Amino acid sequence: MVVCTNVTAPGHISVDILLDITSSLAKLDAKFDAKFGAVEASIAELKSVVTALKVDVSGLKVDVAVLKVDVGALKADVSGLKKGAKAMEADVRKLLDWKQRLWGMVLLISVVTAVAPSVWRELVQLVSGLDGIR
Questions:
Q1: What is the three-class DSSP state of 10?
Q2: Number of domains in the chain
Q3: Rounded to whole angstroms, what are the CA distances from 12 to 2, 6, 23, 72, 101?
Q4: Whether the Cβ atoms of residue 25 and residue 43 lie closer than 8 Å to each other
Q5: Torsions phi, psi of 10, nearest 5?
Q6: pLDDT for 30-61, tens place per residue?
Q7: Residue 41 belongs to what domain range?
Q8: For 95-107, how does the pLDDT look when each residue is reduced to its tens digit (9 = 90+)?
Q9: Residue 120: which residues within 8 A CB-CB, separation 6 or more?
């Protein structure tokens, strides 16, 4: 900025000073317009990003709803599996009881046949004799 020192009257401003002020104001206005344009572009970009985020959030809400349904189904499946496991546990216990009974019978039969083979022979003869009676 150029300052003119040849001002003669206190209320008098030279044309050069006015031109310098006008030029400086025009430069400031141009800088402001550029900065303001950049701010407006940033705001527009942020609005676009916010809109995209809103869309993403909406999609995530749908995904969460689907996952809630899937979790509910999985809970039902797990509950069914637990019931099935309890039923299988009861069946296994019954099978183990039958196994113990069977081994008890086998042991009893082996003891009886070892101790009294003659009793078995007589029983066989008695049964075969009954077949002839019929």
A1: coil
A2: 1
A3: 16, 10, 19, 87, 128
A4: no
A5: -60, -30
A6: 999 999 999 999 999 999 999 999 999 999 99
A7: 15-103
A8: 999 999 999 888 8
A9: 112, 113
* 8 A C-beta contact, residue 40 and residue 48: no
Question: Residue 98 gets which letter from DSSP?
Answer: H
The one-character DSSP state at 55 is H
Query: Computed over its alpha carbons, how large is the radius of gyration of the chain?
Result: 52
Q: Residue 35, SS3?
A: helix
Model pLDDT, residue 33: 92
Give pLDDT, residue 41: 94
Tokens 């800088």 sit at which residue?
31
- Asked if residue 113 belongs to a domain, the reply is no
In a domain, 9, yes or no: no
Residue 83, in any domain of the structure? yes
Residue 35 has a CB neighbour count (10 Å cut-off) of 10
Alpha helices by DSSP H, the chain: 15-115, 117-133
- Name the token pair of 37: 């344009």
